Amino acid sequence: MTTGAVWAVGEVAEGAITRLSAEAATVARRLAEMAGTDAVGLVVASDPTGPAMELAAYLPCVLAIAAPLADERPAAAVTAARLAALARVDAPGWIVVGATPDGRDVAGVLAVLLDLGVLTNAVDVTWDAAHGPVVEAAVLGGRVLTSSVFSAGHGIVLLAPNVIAAAPAGSPGRVETVAVDGVADLAPVTVVDHVSAVADALPIEEARVIVAGGRGVGGPGGFGIVAELAELLGGSVGATRAAVDAGWIDYAQQVGQTGKTVRPALYLALGISGAIQHRVGMQAAETIVAVNRDPDAPLAEYADLYAVGDLFEVGPAIAAEIRARRG
């Protein structure tokens, strides 16, 4: 492997590569092209072969690293220990990690073990011949974009979700099985249980259509029209923090600064004012349509289509029109 390569860490969930891992791989490949070096993916799992082959759709080379205890121990202990051992030999230039809970833990441990700096919440990465990667990050709730470089030249980039579209390479890369022997887990912590939320629709991070409700829906019953439209459009239900804090809907559906960042083709907002804390989580949507009684709500400034009206009148009318067009 080339010294100074760009690594992309692949995170595995339920036996498959996550969407954010594909986005991180895309960033790593583009950065390697700009830097004139190699892009390499790394997958650490109890059975890494399948996920590594998935990641190879985005990178010319992926290393599959078996870790029998990967399902029983935290990623920060198992994954980071093996990546650090490999990095001490191969000396990558930069490491791109998805900013999930596990990804942040892995990046933090790698930073300590390898004495590397970390740039977080990256929304884009470009290249400067004099300074190397230039990492653009959203701060202060998305109101400010900063550009930073690594003072030591090399480092770890934590990529925010849904800010870069995953793009497969022109041809699939190769998968190499690598043994990292003699590595002990960093902490004697055991995962005793996995709890999965049961959902009838796609997770909002993966949905192409999201119908979201805010304070304007008035209560848990108001999410009936939100769910109806989401079902008709083949999408998922989203919500603002106000709706979640009120107990009207589960936190898993929250979009925004303290929730999830989404990138759907269509974001239909019902009863949402569009404060900056919500905007940072959905502004990357291809098309934003909103319904609100307040003509001066912040969302009116950046929605592609803004309907001033009562969502309990406009929403059913939209549903009726969809059904009529389907015959």
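[next item in queue]
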Amino acid sequence: MDRPASDVAAFILAGGKSTRMGTDKAFVALDGRMLLARALEVARSVTADVHIVGDAAKFATFAPVVQDIFPACGPLGGIHAALRASQRELNVILAVDTPFVSFALLQFLLTRARACSPSDRKAAVTVPRTRDGWQPLCAVYRREFADAAESALRAGRHKIDALFDSLPVQSIAEEELEAAGFSPTLFRNLNTPDDVANARQ
């Protein structure tokens, strides 16, 4: 395995309410391991600079914690807080409830982010796009995205992919992902007890 990169930070988004799960998703076990532990392991495979975005009272024993600047604004609020806290140019954003994301996938996204051509104007986001839509919670963001996120949050707009129309974005299509050996099922997230049960099968 490659050594963790020094130009990258990673942030695990764990601040959701987990309403449909009925308990905090971060602590749900899949095959004997908490979703949070799985997310931390894959994040630490690409960088030693790993933080959790969420409640410090719950997560400070696992990793350094970043708390939302704009509370209760969903994942966009978490991404904004992460990028404002980051000291790195490239930032992996990963939802805590996506246990199938692999080291190889994150490395692929980082390689693409680093290799942005001048025509891409150093894309603010390198983000997969499958037939199910954008995958903004498994993507690489540059710190500049925080400015657009803050403007949107101040205006009461919380939809992440709505910002992709106004920024340089490097979109990685499902066909390209599959050609590189990555199934779109890697982005599958677990929202309910049934999702977890199905994932165990």
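[queue empty]
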